[in-house]
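Quick entry between incubations.
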Amino acid sequence: MTTATPPAPGPLRRFFDGDVWFSFTSSPVAMGAAAVAFLCVFGALFAPWIAPHNPFDLASLELSDARTPPAWNEGGSAKYLLGTDDQGRDVLSAIMYGARVSLLVGFASVVMSVLVGVSLGLLSGFVGGKTDAFIMRVCDVMLSFPSILIALLIDGVGRAMFPDAHDTLAFAVLVLAIALPGWVQYARTVRGSTLVERNKEYVQAARVTGVAPLRIMSRHVLPNVLGPVLVLATIQVATAILTEATLSFLGVGVPPTQPSLGTLIRVGNDFLFSGETWITIYPGLALVLIALSVNLLGDWLRDALNPRLR
Amino acid sequence: MDATPLLEVRNLRVEFPSRRGTLLALDDVSFSIAPGEILGVVGESGAGKSLTGSAIIGLLEPPGRIAGGQVLLAGQRIDNLPYEAMRKIRGRQIGAIFQDPLTSLNPLYTVGRQLVETIRTHLPVSESEARQRAIRLLQETGIPAAEARIDHYPHQFSGGMRQRVVIALALAAEPKLIVADEPTTALDVSIQAQIISLLRRLCREHGAAVMLVTHDMGVIAETCDRVAVMYAGRVAEIGPVADVIHRPSHPYTVGLMGSIPSMDIERERLMQIDGAMPRLNAIPKGCAFNPRCPNVFDRCRSERPDLIDAGATRAACWQVEPR
Amino acid sequence: MTAPADSAGAPLVQVDDLAKIFDVSAPWLNRVIDRKPRQFVHAVDGVSFSIRKGRTLALVGESGCGKSTVARLLVGLYAPTRGSVSFDGVDVRSLDPVQLRTLRRRMQMIFQDPFASLNPRWKVLDIVAEPIREHGLVTDADEQRAKVGELLASVGLAAADADKFPHQFSGGQRQRISIARALATQPEFLVCDEPTSALDVSVQAQVLNIMKDLQRQRGLTYLFISHNLAVVRHVSDEVGVMYLGRLVELADKADLFAQPRHPYTRMLLDAIPDIRMSGRQRTPVQGEVPNPLQPPTGCAFHPRCPLANARCSAERPVLKAFQGIQIACHAVEEGRA
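Done. Structure below.
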């Protein structure tokens, strides 16, 4: 008595045959958002090679070109597509370099949040008891503080502790500041899923076999609770980028030598009333575009992975 | 028995359009139920028995839809009625009992309120008259201290009691037909026995016909007058209960009866039917059972048999045809 | 209260006065504010039995009787509140962690739900090989694969199925994969918790046949939990009937079904739908299983028992030997049944 099930396809084939890919190709919004996000990420990552100018190479700046409006306005030139700021830096290039910094900080903080949050959530759900209660209370406390305030606090502490070693540490502190309020949602979600999976028979079968609890947590339960984490992480990238932009706008984010989109917006803010609006508007638009496309992707992913909506 | 059947299902087809093509879940299903009769619809998972019940009540989950055939209640077609008309029929003419008593009752309203609401929706009686009826119904279903318990909430009843309330609810508007989908599967064995005898007795008393959908042949043997055996969305055999159980003609029915462990005969091995019921997207050509049938011959693989007279029962099997 | 040891030696599994009490009290704060007392459920309340090698003991009863809890106590998923479990003559409590680990190889469990018993993200190969890898029985990857292939073949599946995922299989096939996994360490004792309750009747027949074949081929000992008396009759050698955490009757299969003595056993047998429609005489079933938080005093069954008297509501009957079986019933002892 042998089975007649067809041979198993490889993982790539399974993905492209699956419901998730089908849902992607049938949603113009998802595909559009993915295209935009991809373009932004690509442009940002390869900025040093594809940006028309290097706005941070002081030698290449020409002060005479300062305050040039965007190419389609009167007085603009094709050399500086989106115009220049008060020091002659090309706005388009500045956006690309700035996006690079923003995205780097955004991704790094999300990765950190996920690592901390998923581990704590898994531990909390699996072990239960006092550990669970403690971790959940910590989550509750963290949620009662606005994340910007926590970020400001950590940043302030960081500056006070290391007033000299500013630049490299500034990034680390910034990433930490954004990641710290962020891990809570992962912990809660993963804890909920862990509680469900822990009672399933395949976990009990592993316990009967004598598998150690740590191994059960990491090899059995973890792969089954990661689904919602992916959705959250995608959306949180957008939030992280915006938080970083806010902090940089407030002046407590990235160091001024490596401006992010937020820094650019702040710098350009001073020129709003003198009519040189492009210096702040285009970085602002770029920020909105990135956040929007990532959010839309996250939305689509959540619906695609939700078994009930299929 | 009346000449006009109460419920008549003719060549019913139910489809599920999906992105991988259209799946045919019910294929040319026909049977009838006489007034006051209890018909059992038995089959394994995936045979389509619950789907038949849903299609008749008009509660098919979209994208499922009736793609062909007719359902007639007392001579009138009900499968093509608009939503409002069907809603009036549900409850008044057809009552329903589902498997899980926990989700069949609204946990936020008392049992009495749900009963009274059902009664007053379908029958022109006053509030107090409806309440009296409700109390009587609860007493009939064997709930002790009905006058007090009518104001209790569903969570205050045990599983078996809740199912009794569900039966009372189904009978509240005096329907002519009750569709019961696995009413005892979620209950303990001793409660199961109580519920099926209650169902049988009450339906006889109220003159309601019953379509009892279940996978449990024992329940069928205890309650039903006739039984239809379903396989892969089709009716394999139909006939009086004693004949289908003791003298089945269709090889699937024979295998099914043989694989049930018996309380009387002791065997070393249970009869087993090799293989499994085909999935909806892989139903074989000809007779759906042919890959697993011990007596298969050529005709079975190419032509699909209709229900053919086989003595006391009718079976969809070419063997049965007189040559 | 052990079954007489036959010439094959001591029983393989021996359970004495096993009990498990769950604390289901409301959280401390709620208890203080609402002044609620602590609440306990005696899921298993003093159960004793033994199983000889190569035999099958079935534990039967309705929901809440504690049979699943007994199964989990036996394999170590729960720690007993009281009582002892002995395997091959050795009390499990006296073992150190290393010995306990070796013991885990010798007993395994098969669960009820075929859909939750297998990790949906793992390949069948990894699922079945896990016990082998965990205990280091076979270290070479190719040999592991070969062993898994053998195990799959022994339950009627193909070796090529090892590269597939659980969702590609039906319920019956998944249950067979569970059995293959349970056999990976060549255990002597298998605890089966309602292994066929979630399966269709014809699939159940396939799985039960496989289990009986394997028992014969490998000399396995089974503890078979079920609520279905017909299935129990087919697979077991001895049957224990449980009610609200206690064993009320324990007898050889033939004795139990030919002449059930305990009123609850009789009630259970009477409640089985009569598929042969033989028109046999049946006593109507009364009442429902009581709330385990408030068990009746004395004999747990007395509120539903047609033979209950004053003694039954005051004094709890003890499982005793009686005419070749074991039974816990005052009425039977006193000759009233």
